Amino acid sequence: MAVIGAGFGGIGMGVALKRAGFEDFVIFEKSADVGGVWRDNTYPGCNCDVPSHLYSFTFAPYRDRHIRYPGQRQILEYLRRVAVECDLMPHLRLGTAITAATYLEQQGRWELATATGRSVADVVVFAVGQLHRPYLPDIEGRTDFAGLSFHTAEWDHRHDLRGRDIAVIGTGSSAAQILPTLAAAAARVHLFQRTPHWVLPKPPAEFGPLARAGLSLPGAHHFYRQALDHGADALLAPIMRRGWSARPAAWLARRYLHRQVPDPALRAKLTPDYPIGGKRIIFDSHYYPTLNRPNVELVTEPVTGIVGDGLVTADGTCHRVDVIVYATGFRAPEFLVPVVVRGREGRVLHEQWRTGASAFFGLAVPGYPNAFLIAGPNSFNPAGSNPAMKERQIDYILDCLRLRDRLGAAAIEVDEEAMRAHRRWLDRAIAKTVWPITGPSWYKDRAGRVTNPWPASARTYERMLRNHRPVACFRAVSADTPYPRHGRPAPAVTRCSTPVASPAVS
User: Fold this and answer.
1) What's the topology of domain 142-326?
2) What span, in angstroms and rounded, lies between the C-alpha atoms of 66 and 69?
3) Residues with Cβ within 8 Å of residue 421, at least 6 apart in sequence
């Protein structure tokens, strides 16, 4: 078994394999540490907009009574602790980037290429995530800037930004999180906005005394997590489909904007002209107040070029700055890049995905046997916890491995007709959401196809996986090499004899 990536998906997959009795697996990670997006994003103010109790594994639930929303360092420490306490360290191959994965048809196995050599695995699980390849806009003259510039995911901590004139390009979640810190230190901040976002207030990062007292009661943490999970499905998921909660949410967002931004002109610039949920909703209680500061300027004219000492906008104005911060998000629709994946009959996955990335529930693609994805196309949950979505995918992958064992097959792959049926359902479901009528976002690829978010609730995803079991949707693929190999019996499916530790974030 080879797992590629050591973020939430890869670590969760590794723990699940051990708990199911599989020990012969390796987790390849290109960087020197685990953590994925929470390792890479170290910009000031980086945090999660999902409550900590929900943003954790079910086998290692968060149980801190003080912190409601985790910061970047806390989440990274949580993942490190899970890796250690669940005995994943011997399975990790850090600093090992997979550059290519090629299916060997005669053997029914995968050959993985790295910069230093090659490995062969029976099964490969791609857990590389969606939000780890920084996107830099193609602005004329970008390389001509003489000052300091970097992306939020590649923060340069060597420089003191106090007293500087800073440009921030982008107004998504990372920009909202970083703006208060920059505005408090900089001489001036110019925030360049392409499209305003819907913003909803975020509760305090720490629990109050009553909540802390309540969480000390037996079973309170589990009940709170369940309430958050049900609440996300019942309140947030319908927003994406213009369901019952869309109007109240839009009213609350407009009311919040009106109360936080007294200037009518500034408020008009911050008012979205697309349905709420069309882009990822920002949950933040400091973004709007910071925009009222005298040293913060919101610029809505498009950036047309960059010169040595600043940015030029469409109205001809040159905004002179010392630093440019690109809060421009990630190349999320480019799944699995830069790994070159070759399946049966020499097919190349990224060539197949030129017309839009697609996978069976974001998990598998016909023609690529014994290959699975975690957080693949159209499996990002825009209304809840993505670690929970990944756990559902991991459970399904384990079911696929058990089916392979029962069949005694060298390889299995998702059936073409099952994939077509899923695609038909997915197209109809996406058509009912607000995304097709909303402008560009990381939910879509460059051609405007919605490739990233899941168009229904998390419970619908779970129910549909139950209704599309591997035994009905996957088929055996022949290979010259018999299974099991080397005279070994198929791995037994067992559970750990001792409970898995539940590290708390502190």
Assistant:
1) FAD/NAD(P)-binding domain (3.50.50)
2) 9
3) none
Q: pLDDT tens per residue, the chain (506 residues)?
A: 999 999 999 999 999 999 999 999 999 999 999 999 999 999 999 999 999 999 999 999 999 999 999 999 999 999 999 999 999 999 999 999 999 999 999 999 999 999 889 999 999 999 999 988 999 999 999 999 999 999 999 999 999 999 999 999 999 999 999 999 999 999 999 999 999 999 999 999 999 999 999 999 999 999 999 999 999 999 999 999 999 999 999 999 999 999 999 999 999 999 999 999 999 999 999 999 999 999 999 999 999 999 999 999 999 999 999 999 999 999 999 999 999 999 999 999 999 999 999 999 999 999 999 999 999 999 999 999 999 999 999 999 999 999 999 999 999 999 999 999 999 999 999 999 999 999 999 999 999 999 999 999 999 999 999 999 999 999 999 766 555 443 333 343 333 332 333 333 32
Largest CA distance in the chain: 75
pTM exceeds cut of 0.70: yes
CA dist., res. 308 & res. 261, Å (int):
33
Question: Domain-by-domain residue ranges, the chain?
Answer: 2-133+332-477, 142-326
In the block, tokens 């290692």 appear at: 60
Domains 2-133+332-477 and 142-326 share a fold: yes
CATH number attached to the domain at 2-133+332-477: 3.50.50.60
Sheet holding 303-307, edge to edge: 303-307, 310-313, 318-320
